[in-house]
Amino acid sequence: MGAAVIGAGYWGPNLARNLRGSADWELMAVCDLDRERATRVAESVGGAPVVTDVEEVLADPLIDAVAIATPARTHHGLVTRALEAGKHVLVEKPLAADRAAGVAMVELARERGLVLMTDHTYCYTPAVLRIRDLIAEGALGDILYVDSTRINLGLVQPDVDVLWDLAPHDLAILDFVLPGGLSAATVSASGADPLGAGRACVGYLALPLANGAMAHVQVNWLSPTKIRRMVIGGTRRTLVWDDLNPAQRLSIFDRGVDVALAGDADHAARVSYRLGDTWSPALPEQEALANVMTEFASAIRSGRPARTDGDSGLRVLSVLEAASRSLAAQGAPAPIATTVPTLIGGAA
Amino acid sequence: MGAAVIGAGYWGPNLARNLRGSADWELMAVCDLDRERATRVAESVGGAPVVTDVEEVLADPLIDAVAIATPARTHHGLVTRALEAGKHVLVEKPLAADRAAGVAMVELARERGLVLMTDHTYCYTPAVLRIRDLIAEGALGDILYVDSTRINLGLVQPDVDVLWDLAPHDLAILDFVLPGGLSAATVSASGADPLGAGRACVGYLALPLANGAMAHVQVNWLSPTKIRRMVIGGTRRTLVWDDLNPAQRLSIFDRGVDVALAGDADHAARVSYRLGDTWSPALPEQEALANVMTEFASAIRSGRPARTDGDSGLRVLSVLEAASRSLAAQGAPAPIATTVPTLIGGAA
Amino acid sequence: MGAAVIGAGYWGPNLARNLRGSADWELMAVCDLDRERATRVAESVGGAPVVTDVEEVLADPLIDAVAIATPARTHHGLVTRALEAGKHVLVEKPLAADRAAGVAMVELARERGLVLMTDHTYCYTPAVLRIRDLIAEGALGDILYVDSTRINLGLVQPDVDVLWDLAPHDLAILDFVLPGGLSAATVSASGADPLGAGRACVGYLALPLANGAMAHVQVNWLSPTKIRRMVIGGTRRTLVWDDLNPAQRLSIFDRGVDVALAGDADHAARVSYRLGDTWSPALPEQEALANVMTEFASAIRSGRPARTDGDSGLRVLSVLEAASRSLAAQGAPAPIATTVPTLIGGAA
Amino acid sequence: MGAAVIGAGYWGPNLARNLRGSADWELMAVCDLDRERATRVAESVGGAPVVTDVEEVLADPLIDAVAIATPARTHHGLVTRALEAGKHVLVEKPLAADRAAGVAMVELARERGLVLMTDHTYCYTPAVLRIRDLIAEGALGDILYVDSTRINLGLVQPDVDVLWDLAPHDLAILDFVLPGGLSAATVSASGADPLGAGRACVGYLALPLANGAMAHVQVNWLSPTKIRRMVIGGTRRTLVWDDLNPAQRLSIFDRGVDVALAGDADHAARVSYRLGDTWSPALPEQEALANVMTEFASAIRSGRPARTDGDSGLRVLSVLEAASRSLAAQGAPAPIATTVPTLIGGAA
């Protein structure tokens, strides 16, 4: 299948390189308003046609799909045009600048029977793919809590706060690995802007999950130490993903708390501990974006939604919008809008 | 000065041993309703008079002070009796089972001119004493955020949730090291009871501080990995206290974000980074409880409030009570009651 | 069975406490020339008869065994007397101050049919017991190399160098866990005395093992960082024991190098890598010295040598003496004396 | 100045890229017998003339210097030709396949007044440059010991053992940072070939330094854990360089042992400990090879030897040759040949 990259900025070269390197795809064009940038990207992958007018791409019958890496505010327009032109679409996160636009894009893709995939790259890393499998096969049991920490000395963004900048990664991963996806009904958000930067530089999200479980996300632009860690506690085992420890990225602890079924009042007596082994699976060395390209092609060929389809992008957007409302209300829980297309279409 | 220990349970032996080992104190009695327990404690410190009736202790004119290590629900009654008998009091945390009782105890001590000290032992560790000094001398600059994590595989307590069980440590430390003490006006609390234990086993507190800063506390009874870490980010430097890393307990990072004073809109441009050295001060080996005994004696002698006086115990209680209300409201911010005696008496 | 502790110095209290706490033993006496020291030890375990004349202990028919914790130079005399009096003996490491004395002690015990056990306490830690089992059951395959590191800021001893002070631990452990015990024929030792302390403060031992394998030991009194780590590389798996990491003391890496059987010259082509999982077994919490007491009793009852018998103490001594000769020869390999009694008696 | 790269294999692209990126150099040619390989390298840096005949390079008057990245056995011939053609030379490590060839190359460069620089890249990393400065300014005091560990799961090389493969890095660094360079008179080497690979896969070097100090190097191809760590103990402070810990690559411990001057026999009493702070300097982010190119140009311009000149390459070769002799003698110390040119010319 033929594909074009639209947008030759920060992420475009990675998309072009992985399309070029994929057995599923032929890179047909690199498109950017700035011909020089597009040319640089095309040359960096050994040469490819350069286009400055996106209409040219959309009109090309040999191009089956486009990979869009332009600013978020342009996603709605570009994705709509591409879908109307009959192209399958892979789009960078966030799916759109606001939820309403995202809903329209998802609905359009469904109407046209085209694949709309959100590039939640992290979900295709060997670590996250393995976490998803481990949870799906019951290795962790029922999920009790998730704690995700993503902190670093990071640029204070001019247009978005730290929740919109960093938490999409955590939310997309949660949506990918949790059995029912990211199904929280409300979110409580806290944040701080201690530098007077005009937006939160430190943020926390609490997402009550089903059956009393909870997911918590901590993001921070002001931390001199860099942490990217997710802990997923289950009734059977607990998993720790430490993305900055290449020697032991995943650890599965066969330790936990057992609660007896007896309904008596003395809860301490009902609880016992299990101190078992720790296990750290070997992970293959794979570039996540190569897996993205394979999944994109596979979804198109089999006419199924991609693993990280437009709906998943929409669920992330819905949480972010609710988090902003909760942040404004100092942590009061805000309801998360339900992904309408999913309810109506029932297709996801 | 003469002192008696009241309560020969879990903590009593430590109090007795440190009173015995202190140059400031003479251990005059170990008191417990259970004579056998009291005897065991007395023998473990090389012998001391054993008493089963607390009135005997309170009537003894050679006893200047009592150290109370009984269950929280008994604190109000015992402390009140001791203060009325003219004894200075060191009492285990929490100060009382509820805030109203705590207020009454603090007021009574103030009326009688006696020292009422809360045994916030952590505050007297070499690490926390050093943190207090570093902040006081401006080494960190203005505080931007505090992140405290205290997680472990812990017993599900029969009477209190994880916030009341573990967060008092973090709150007492914050009250001790922050320039103005624990002065938050509201708290947002989130928690989860995924085991159906009848109380939160996972909890989070967000405390907005002055000038846009925020303190956050994370506690968890269900974590197979044990973490006791506090990060204090400041405008000049950031401190990390990793209490489980004896080789490098404190690290001070001379790294951070500088925000220019210009009022323009492009905030990213206003921010710059400082990548400096890291420094880890050597800490003396001291038992915290020995420092507690010294402080207790010193406060009595000089007629000043102890560093962790009844008011500090009360501020911790006030946050916990507000946290319980916020937890019930799914994170909606709850106002923290002001410590009345401080406002009226103005003595702290 | 009745037992007495001889020597109430640094280690004596631990022996007394574990004999007292053992179901196999009755603590009959604490013996020291210094009555006050002996009394302190006896009281610390809740009381026991105090004796100052060792002959009194040896003459007591209710005392079946003695645990000796006196300076090394006194071991030969005391152990000989005890064995001649028909007592089983547990003796602190090193077995004796020199190999010849050790040989005589081992031979005497064998003649008398008594148990002579060396207190190689480390061998009875849960970690080392597990390592021994893992190797015995073939989990590591054939041993390829062992790297043991034991470094710290340590006291420069007045009478022994760093090899004699610290390496006995490593050598005793190697003797305990390696399938054929510590069977090296030679040792090469290097060392340095950069402070002019009169003896090596930094030392290295290289011990060629069977089949081309090698054990290496690194000890150092001058290191500001403390490391106690042993790596045991095998054809199937590699084990890392990090004694200072309680959260993950043992790690078994299912990674390694496979060498094909083909005899061609291009060795690089014959070698392939296996990147498998890492596994960290849970270890029980046990005091090693309690296990020592159980083993001592069990060996006596069943009339078998203790796991760490006199021969093992002798093998450690033999390596140390050879190491001193190699050190004097700047690393030239020195032959390790064979344990004569084993060869003659064939009993170990 | 104009430069050509000779050899378009593994390292050639890095040389080409850094010459191209340097303000000091103009990349005039990429030379390889294999035109295709040379072309690939030239294209990867944005285009450069491609040459297959090295004579063409040497005849070009616009080329002042050559950077040679060909197999070690070809160094002697190529470097000799280049020097005879009047070119300055940067050559990959090892300087030559044997010491005699290295001596001839160094002498020739000296005769012709040309710069012969060994590409000991590690020496130009920010960490090693800082270590050199710290030692030079006395921050560590006198050096007591050096422990260097470089272990990994590595390819068993077909032509060299693990000492020749990995230890050159450690030796080059030692030569660079130690005040008098790598001045050991003898070396003791131990090694093992437990896989029957035909050469040592595990190796140890002990190098007695001046004043009783010692350097020790541990290398291993069979380790499932990767360690690259150097500890440099000094009378004032001890430095730990952990190259795999980007968050704290260098740590300087202000802890150590003080030995009093008194000449009495009781050495334990003469020794005291200093427990001070730990300090971790921030290091700039620099590519080491860019620093190499700057140093190469600077040495040529100022007519001085490069920091890692031919003599340093020769000292490394001398140790390796002696180590091979010691290895064959099971650790017996082997004398290290003195670098003749230095003695005669006195220029280094």
Extended strand count of chain A? 15
Strand content of chain A: 25-35%
Second-tier CATH architecture of the domain at 2-122 and 288-309 in chain A:
3-Layer(aba) Sandwich
Spatial arrangement of strands, main beta sheet of chain A: 14-13-12-11-7-10-9-8-15
Low-confidence stretches of chain A: 261-265, 342-348
Q: H/E element string of chain A?
A: EHEHEHEHEHEHEHEEEEEEHEHHEH
The chain pair with the largest interface is: A-B, 63 and 63 residues
Q: How many DSSP H or I helices of chain A?
A: 11
CATH topology type of the domain at 2-122 and 288-309 in chain A: Rossmann fold
Distance between the first and last residues' Cα of chain A: 24 Å
Question: So what's the CATH class of the domain at 2-122 and 288-309 in chain A?
Answer: Alpha Beta
The biggest beta sheet of chain A is recorded as: 9 strands, mixed
Q: How big is the Rg of chain A?
A: 21 Å
CATH superfamily of the domain at 2-122 and 288-309 in chain A: NAD(P)-binding Rossmann-like Domain
Q: Characterize the overall form of chain A.
A: globular
Oligomer: homotetramer
